[in-house]
Amino acid sequence: MFKIAFKVAYIGTGYHGFQRQPNLPTVEGELLRAFKKAGISEIPEKSDYSIAGRTDRGVSAIGNVVSLKTNSEVKINQINYYLPPNIRLIGYAKVPLGFKPRYAKQRHYRYILDKTYCPKNSLNIELMKQAAKQMEGKHNYINFSKRSERAPERTVYGVKLSETHEVVVFDVVGESFLWNMVRKMVKVLIMIGQCKLTLNDLETLFDPDIPASIKPVPSEGLILMDVDYDGIDFRSEGYAINNFMKTLKDEYARKKTILDVENEMINVLNGF
Known about the structure:
alpha+beta, ten-stranded mixed sheet
């Protein structure tokens, strides 16, 4: 008996989140089905199966982690054969029997904001970077999640912004995050960039005695980039990575065609 951890990549837009749900397509549901079919475990749920992050509906990943115990020889591509193309195991590592994916050294999330959804030149990026710096360190994030959270203090190691002509990229790194926390952080940064909130308002949001309501940005822009652990090095599976890249390119081309058609319809209707 040994324990193995897998790096999991997936396009989340076609699933009702990571966590299994009755009669709904989920990433976890597909993984458990593939583990059974590949003979890794007849009942993964009873094989000390555990996960690093239960991402929400629409959230994608290239570095989520799951682990389980098995007596069987593990062949990544054999497991991937039983997975849909938009879910792939892209790395693995043998880990100690006591390893728990949720106890990570750090997690890295990236949010992609399409500037199309913001009025032209409406974002003060430099002000947003100042606010991002204020988010680093230990804060009470209860206003960035559910008011019922029992342990709302979190330490954020880094919040970085970069931009291109088309998008703003938010990179958030921390040990752990509350439900919706990253998406609400991004929302606050956008509101500060639009001068709807100030840097002083941000400090107030960290006060647990002053309740605030923040609507998170859409989940489709969020990617779980990686989950890191002390002393655990994952071996990458090149064939699986290449296959997943092909799926991403095909999906991008399909969606780009749909966007081009819709944009042309907008242009025609504008002429009426």
